[in-house]
Specification:
With 154 residues, the protein is of the alpha/beta class. It has five helices and five strands. This is Flavodoxin-like domain-containing protein.
Length: 154
């Protein structure tokens, strides 16, 4: 089965999660930065995982552009999953918690965009916590990413 993980990363945290997911899935997984990915890469895909940091409740512009290029029906036979990196709502100010409630996060937005294109998500979108604006990842998030990925392998 062809497995592809496409990610974008600003401070390196989402990239770390993408590679942890790839390692947990196994050697058949290919990990690519969104700037290197092409829609042609999606041909005969069995599992596609998309990951991005959350910026203003949205995926990065590069990930949004890639999602727009995916033709309707392109992923009808694939399992698809999405993850993001995000701030810790529990430690955020009241303003940021309210903003997150209104805007949400990137992974659910990716799932919504793909559902419009007829894609069934294989698993609920997942968010991995970053401490501060630039990181590091919260302790235990790499292990949590590996556990999440193992659910996709089955």
């Amino acid at each position: 089965m062809k497995i592809l993980i496409i990610y974008d990363s600003v401070y390196g945290n989402t990239e770390k999660i993408a590679f942890a997911v790839g390692e947990a899935i196994g050697p058949e997984a290919t990990v690519k930065k969104v700037s290197e990915a092409k829609v042609k890469d999606l041909e005969d895909i069995g599992l596609l995982i998309l990951g991005t940091p959350t910026h203003g409740g949205r995926p990065t512009p590069a990930m949004q552009d890639f999602l727009k290029m995916i033709p309707d029906g392109e992923l009808k036979n694939a399992k698809v999953a999405a993850f993001d990196t995000r701030f810790n709502e529990k430690k955020a100010s009241a303003f940021l918690r309210l903003l997150a409630k209104i805007l949400n996060f990137a992974a659910p937005r990716i799932a919504r965009n793909l559902k419009i294109k007829g894609v069934e998500m294989a698993i609920e979108p997942e968010g991995f916590i970053v401490e501060g604006k630039e990181g590091p990842l919260k302790q235990g998030e790499m292990e949590r990413a590996e556990e999440w990925a193992k659910k996709l392998r089955n």
